[in-house]
């Protein structure tokens, strides 16, 4: 099994105190800690964060927009290729089963 270390280490140089730590969690909750000492481990929990009211409504800007084939005149058509007909090692045809099930049978 593998795992990732979730510990973040920050170098503070010669600082003797931390003025403020502000964490914005993936669910957009915010957690702020102030007046902390250095050379210590701080454990943060999402449960301690508070929801933040957005200052402005987020603007939706899609990364991709449909071109409706205005640039390239191409339309995909599926062929009737069947791998079972070309592979002699396949003894049975299982088009809708996962590979592990096919191998076990």
Low-confidence stretches: none
Strand content: 15-25%
Structure summary, number of beta strands? 3
Distance N to C terminus: 28 Å
Q: Which value, in Å, is the CA radius of gyration?
A: 28 Å
Figure out the total of helices: 2
Strand neighbour order, sheet with most strands: 1-2-3
Helix-strand makeup class: mainly beta
State the shape. Answer: elongated
Structural overview:
This protein is mainly beta. The protein has two helices and three strands. The protein has helices at residues 83-86, 99-104; strands at 17-24, 29-37, 50-51. Strands 1-2-3 form a three-stranded antiparallel sheet, with no helix packed on it. Strand 1 (17-24) and strand 2 (29-37) form a beta hairpin. The chain is elongated. The relative contact order is 0.11. The mean pLDDT is 78.
Relevant terms:
105 residues, elongated, mainly beta
Topology, element by element:
Layout: E1 17-24, E2 29-37, E3 50-51, H1 83-86, H2 99-104
Antiparallel strand pairs: 1-2, 2-3
In a few lines, what is going on in this structure?
The chain has 105 residues and is mainly β.
